[in-house]
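Design a sequence for this backbone.
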């Protein structure tokens, strides 16, 4: 029998982790009773901040793509951090690093965005091999940051399948201090190890490609429901973007209603999972 973390509560799972960012995320989920993360993919600071202030009470985490913001400056980061304290959420810059160790260390620490200085969590493609983890870890670990590896994607025709996914999970197991989990479409428990082996590694799985109304978009995105993601596939966090802020980022009342709706759907699926 495989030791299953899927029936443990988020609160119980805090003790399975040593990394401060992993602990912070689980503590936040337990405290606020939400497994909803909102992905804020907008190009203007004003919209970015308005969405975050509106969804803040309902989320455990805000996912950013700061490189798409046209009027980016360091003040925006200060405002994001202030909201993170006010609303009690974790910050995840979805940078998807993919270069050699030396380069990703510079991209993570330096440049315009200085991601390591403010983002609790970031992520990387495993395609370069373990050196990408050591490069990022040299910057992030001393700051108490955590890394997610992208082992699967939500897009049609993704190449992140099969042995690629398995090797990526093995890479993560060898770097438990810094790798706290995965961006994936299902639980990675037991992946890449023999079927009769007990998998004692409790990794967090954050899952994009979540929508209650649409099945996808015109550019290859595919959506599943919070129930499919949390209950049927054993993921831990639902990441929702356009399903919540739609086409009009300035309509904050509508955004609040949607955020609450996704939060409730995600939490209900989790409660069903831990009580099953
Ligand atoms: N994202 C995906 N799928 C993936 C990965 C990342 O959608 O497999 I890895 C990102 C892209 C976008 C967000 O920032 O998650 C989803 O936004 P929508 O909910 O608006 O589709």
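Sequence:
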């Amino acid at each position: 029998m495989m030791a299953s973390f899927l029936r443990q509560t988020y609160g119980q799972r805090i003790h399975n982790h040593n990394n401060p960012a992993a602990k912070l995320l689980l503590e936040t989920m337990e405290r606020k009773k939400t497994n909803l993360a909102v992905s804020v993919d907008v190009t203007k600071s004003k919209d970015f901040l308005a969405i975050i202030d509106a969804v803040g009470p309902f989320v455990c985490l805000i996912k950013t793509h700061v490189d798409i913001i046209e009027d980016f400056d360091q003040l925006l980061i200060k405002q994001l951090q202030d909201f993170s304290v006010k609303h009690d959420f974790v910050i995840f810059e979805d940078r998807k690093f993919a270069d050699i160790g030396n380069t990703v260390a510079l991209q993570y620490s330096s440049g315009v965005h200085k991601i390591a200085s403010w983002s609790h969590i970031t992520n990387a493609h495993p395609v370069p091999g373990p050196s990408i983890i050591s490069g990022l870890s040299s910057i992030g670990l001393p700051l108490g940051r955590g890394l997610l590896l992208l082992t699967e994607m939500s897009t049609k025709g993704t190449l992140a399948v099969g042995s690629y996914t398995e090797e990526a999970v093995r890479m993560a197991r060898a770097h438990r201090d810094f790798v706290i989990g995965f961006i994936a479409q299902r639980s990675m428990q037991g992946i890449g190890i023999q079927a009769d082996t007990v998998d004692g590694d409790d990794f967090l799985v954050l899952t994009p490609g979540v929508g209650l109304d649409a099945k996808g978009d015109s550019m290859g995105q595919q959506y599943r429901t919070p129930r499919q993601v949390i209950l049927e596939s054993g993921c831990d966090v639902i990441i929702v973007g356009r399903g919540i802020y739609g086409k009009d980022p300035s309509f904050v009342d509508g955004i609040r209603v949607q955020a609450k709706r996704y939060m409730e759907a995600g939490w209900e699926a989790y409660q069903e999972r831990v009580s099953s």
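The mean pLDDT is 96.
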